[in-house]
Specification:
heterodimer, A: alpha/beta, Elongation Factor Tu (Ef-tu), domain 3, Rossmann fold, Ubiquitin-like (UB roll), 3 domains, five-stranded parallel beta sheet, B: alpha/beta, five-stranded mixed beta sheet, 4 helices, 29% strand, elongated
Chain lengths: 314, 200
């Protein structure tokens, strides 16, 4: 992966759980521009573990003076977001990948409806700037449990197209109303908890929306599980720890695997399985249901294995 | 006439499945000539499909009009040609909400142009249902002069705009709703392959 060495220019808490980080080139050079919805993967050298988490860029896509991300601290998570909150200070140097966009706007659409739940607001902050610049019709719906948790409020401009739904204040988002009256040519983008994405898909299906007009992105953290062993073509065996992903175990063993999002969405780390005696626990959004059932491919970034033996085409 | 089965070709050549009813969802239907029979069969399979349908029919000499009218579409309109129906069709696309089902049936010229309008209106390609019925004549664009010749039934054919003899390609432009015609004797002027009828 092509990476940039950037300096942490600012660390600013937005809410008790969410902090904004700004990265700039140490020599002040302009960074490559991106498009709304793009993310970077941040490398975190945490003791003997190299953590890599994907974060959506929230700054203006056409502003190359820096990259900004907003990170929610997940206390029950694997430690990446805790590292960001506890250890990263202004002036630090960090390695980040070049921006990659798996969640770009479909510019053939006549109108864009953005639905963000909680920290899922992040990709839309950059898309908003793009839509405003393109002068395209849009609506943004931001749902959060409480005003105190709604870190996005500090980052959203004051525009009539932006609707804030705070469920604690009895102002829950009504997906039926949002999807029920959109002009032909509208596309919907959803980012947030799995339940929100499923609810939008379900509402869309009920109202006759074509699948091609419904877009979503959810980065998954690699789920922990029982330790397991995989075998490579050479016969070499690799142990995968309970809190380690298969991809991380392969990297720690210096086995080359291409990757991009590390969250089960992009498909880059797709790996062939030459023999499988047991069950692959597929956690990705990439493989189709048929491919998952066939057990001939695995996404090592998020998926695990239980059973006797798993041999990879590596 | 039954649904046309086209022989397999290159990836850009459109294929047309049979129309499938989406119940009483709002619907926009456009058919020409024998395409009427696809809508008649659709309504026979699920009469509710007409409950909130706006149906536009271009008879082009076919006698299906009265039977179509009786299907009970919420709005029924006949037009003498696609261009005569275009303003109404565009207005219907403009007023439609997402979730409106689009059903196209008939010739490739009609389906291609109506699908191109719908795509331009922002509808994703997967939201457009179409079924081919009737004439397999093609709507061809001359890649040299850009003129469109309707109802082409032979290969090669003579461009009605610039007069070049054109080879009928399966290469289809979704944007234009037309197949591409390419000069057949550019390398050997005057040496033109024998003219054959276009097959499905």
């Amino acid at each position: 992966m092509s990476a940039l060495e950037l300096r942490v220019a600012a660390v600013e808490p937005l809410s008790p759980l969410v902090t904004r980080f700004r990265f700039e080139d140490p020599a002040g050079a302009t960074l490559p521009l991106f498009s709304g919805g793009a993310h970077i993967v941040v490398e975190m050298p945490d003791e003997d573990t190299l953590r890599r988490n994907a974060y959506s860029l929230i700054s203006d896509p056409l502003d190359g003076s820096g990259y900004e991300i907003a990170v929610r601290r997940e206390d029950a998570g694997r430690g990446g977001s805790r590292f960001m909150h506890a250890r990263v200070k202004p002036g630090d140097t960090m390695r980040v990948t070049l921006p990659i966009n798996l969640f770009s706007l479909d510019l053939r659409a006549k109108k864009h409806v953005l639905i963000g739940g909680g920290i899922g607001i992040t990709p839309f902050l950059a898309q908003l700037r793009q839509l405003q610049r393109l002068q395209m019709p849009f609506e943004l719906h931001y749902a959060a449990r409480s005003r105190a948790e709604a870190a996005g409020l500090a980052l959203l401009p004051d525009l009539p197209q932006i609707h804030v739904h705070i469920s604690d204040e009895g102002n829950r988002m009504d997906l039926g109303a949002i999807l029920g009256s959109q002009p032909l040519g509208t596309h919907i983008y959803t980012c947030g908890p799995e339940g929100l994405i499923a609810a939008v898909d379900e509402t869309g299906a009920r109202l006759g929306w074509p699948k091609g007009a419904l877009h979503s992105e959810a980065f998954l953290a690699p789920p922990p599980g029982t330790p397991f062993t995989v075998t490579l073509k050479s016969g070499r065996k690799i142990e995968v720890g309970a809190h380690q992903s298969l991809l991380e175990a392969l990297e720690a063993a210096e086995v080359e695997v291409d990757w991009s999002c590390r969250g089960g969405a992009c498909g880059r780390c797709e790996t062939g399985v030459s023999s499988c005696h047991g069950r692959i626990e597929h956690h990705d959004h990439w493989l189709s249901d048929e491919e998952k059932a066939a057990q001939t491919k695995i996404m090592p970034c998020v998926s695990r294995f239980t059973g006797e033996s798993l041999t990879l085409d590596l | 006439m039954p649904r046309t089965e086209f022989s397999p070709s290159i990836a850009t050549r459109p294929v047309y499945a049979a129309l499938k009813a989406h119940g009483s969802a709002p619907a926009l239907m456009l058919a020409d000539a024998e395409g009427a029979e696809a809508l008649i069969e659709l309504a026979a399979a699920d009469p509710a499909v007409m409950d909130r349908a706006h149906l536009i029919y271009i008879p082009a000499g076919a006698a299906h009009g009265p039977r179509l009218r009786e299907l009970g579409a919420k709005m029924y309109h006949e037009a003498p040609s696609f261009s005569a129906a275009l303003e109404r069709y565009r207005k219907a696309l403009l007023d439609a909400k997402m979730g409106t089902q689009l059903y196209l049936a008939g010739t490739e010229g009609l389906i291609g142009q109506a699908a191109a309008e719908a795509l331009a209106a922002g509808l994703p390609a997967d939201a457009i249902q179409s079924e081919h019925r009737g004439s397999i004549a093609r709507r061809m664009q001359c890649v040299h002069c850009k003129g469109v010749t309707e109802d082409v039934t032979t290969d090669p054919f003579v461009c009605s705009h610039c007069g070049l003899t054109l080879f009928v390609r399966d290469h289809f432009s979704r944007r234009l709703g037309a197949f591409q015609g390419v000069c057949v004797d550019a390398e050997t002027p005057g040496i033109v392959p024998e003219m054959k009828e276009i097959k499905a």
